[in-house]
Amino acid sequence: MQTLNLLAAGEELNPLIPHPVEIVLSLVVFGLLFLAVKKFVVPNFEKTFSERTSAIEGGLAAAETKQAEADAKLAELEKQLADARHEAARIREEAREQGAAIVSEMRDQAQAESTRIVDHGKAQIEAERQQAVTSLRAEVGTLATALAGRIVGESLDDDDRSNRVVERFLADLETMESARSGGTSTNGDGAR
Amino acid sequence: MSLIGTLVVRAEGFTPPGPGDFNLPPIGGGTGTFEWLGQSHYIGVTKPMVQLVLAAILVFGFFYLAAKRREMVPGRMQYVAEEAYGFVRNSMGRDIIGSADFMRFVPYLFALFFFLLVNNLMASVPLIQFPTFSRSGMVYSLAVLSWVIYNGVGIKKHGLVGYLKLQSVPSGVGGPILLLLVPLEFMSNILVRPFTLALRLFANMFAGHLLLILFALGGEYILLHMAIQFAPVGILAWVLFIAVAFLEILIQFLQAYVFVLLNAMYIQGAVADEH
């Protein structure tokens, strides 16, 4: 630096006194820079800023719309879901009622049926018993009559005799019985 | 500094740095001079002139390339440029001048700030290491320009009389005190401002660079040409050189900022309705 200090030697420079070329040069260079910046740089920045602002604002507005739509849809779906739940509960309740009704009806029917069957059986048994009683009564009557006839036909004052009569009767009865079965078989043979 | 240096050091053969160190000869030699305002000046292109043009090209080139792409999602370069632009636009333009009509001053403030900043920072760029605005002529034109601009927009808005009244007569003050206040306000708002603007920037750049030269050359002189027991002082001088160099970077930014900030405030005061 000191070797460059050519003019300083001998005279003291006053740094406040300007170099005229520098005044003009500074003004011109800065003026050109200003014009270039004003024309080519600042508009680009401003345009970018405003575009970005509008893009962000547009994005925000779109997001808001989407959000509102989504909210509405969600509310609708929730309402539908609640309706469906309600409906399902109603149907279930109905089904339960119907089921109970069906069960009780079936029970009544079964009760009635069983009562009917029991009644029917009872009536049948009674009828058969009646029939048996009737036929038994008739048979007993016949047998009694036959026995009585035998007994009356013999002397009834002798015990031994009466015993014999009874035994004979019983034996007859047995022979009658066997004869009936034998007779039928001989009859069957004879017929053949 | 120069006086003390003359008294104390020159006796031992050390030539202290002075204003002459800022009067660089033209590039490529040439020692022709001309007289102007009682002082002789070099004829030719000097280093600060080249720096001035280079700074303008750098500022425009960077911001033009960065702003050209105009992407919604900015890349690194565009982001940096947008932040830088937004810093001047918002913190110095909009916040001070007001959102109503700051936009028409943004190109001026923006170009001015980065023009000043790059030129100032050149004092700290290795191999360049010369503050462009330590040349007073460079600063005068910018100060005069800002004076023309703020007075111009003021007169355009309020008319000459209305503007002078706005700048000279403080509102809410009446009576004989005005006799005192009006000349003061006129002085401070109209006359003194370009001088303070210019001198603040010029003197800071000039003094900072002078200080650095002093530490560098003084340390060198102590280490090379003085007895060995003074060596620690020479080392200390170089350590201080580094420290002051970092301080200078801060000052370079700050002076650019202050210059543009004051410009914005002057414009705001000039276009204000009342203040």
UniProtKB/TrEMBL annotation, chain A:
Signal peptide: none annotated. The chain crosses the membrane at residues 20-37. GO terms for cellular component: plasma membrane; proton-transporting ATP synthase complex. GO terms for molecular function: proton-transporting ATP synthase activity, rotational mechanism; proton-transporting ATPase activity, rotational mechanism. CDD domains: ATP-synt_Fo_b (cd06503). The keyword Membrane applies. Residues 60-94 form a coiled coil. Its main location: membrane. Keywords: ATP synthesis, Cell membrane, CF(0), Coiled coil, Hydrogen ion transport, Ion transport, Membrane, Transmembrane, Transmembrane helix, Transport. Pfam families: ATP-synt_B. It is a single-pass membrane protein. It comes from the Bacteria. It is found in: Cell membrane. F-type ATPases have 2 components, F(1) - the catalytic core - and F(0) - the membrane proton channel. F(1) has five subunits: alpha(3), beta(3), gamma(1), delta(1), epsilon(1). F(0) has three main subunits: a(1), b(2) and c(10-14). The alpha and beta chains form an alternating ring which encloses part of the gamma chain. F(1) is attached to F(0) by a central stalk formed by the gamma and epsilon chains, while a peripheral stalk is formed by the delta and b chains. NCBIfam families: ATP_synt_b (TIGR01144), PRK05759.1-3 (NF004412). Belongs to the ATPase B chain family. F(1)F(0) ATP synthase produces ATP from ADP in the presence of a proton or sodium gradient. F-type ATPases consist of two structural domains, F(1) containing the extramembraneous catalytic core and F(0) containing the membrane proton channel, linked together by a central stalk and a peripheral stalk. During catalysis, ATP synthesis in the catalytic domain of F(1) is coupled via a rotary mechanism of the central stalk subunits to proton translocation. This is ATP synthase subunit b. It comes from Nocardioides donggukensis.
UniProtKB/TrEMBL annotation, chain B:
Belongs to the ATPase A chain family. It is found in: Cell membrane; Membrane. It is a multi-pass membrane protein. This is ATP synthase subunit a. Keywords: ATP synthesis, Cell membrane, CF(0), Hydrogen ion transport, Ion transport, Membrane, Transmembrane, Transmembrane helix, Transport. The gene is atpB. The chain crosses the membrane at residues 49-67, 105-125, 137-155, 176-195, 201-223, 235-258. PANTHER family: ATP SYNTHASE SUBUNIT A. Coiled coil: none annotated. Key component of the proton channel; it plays a direct role in the translocation of protons across the membrane. Pfam families: ATP-synt_A. One of its GO terms (cellular component) is plasma membrane. One of its GO terms (molecular function) is proton-transporting ATP synthase activity, rotational mechanism.
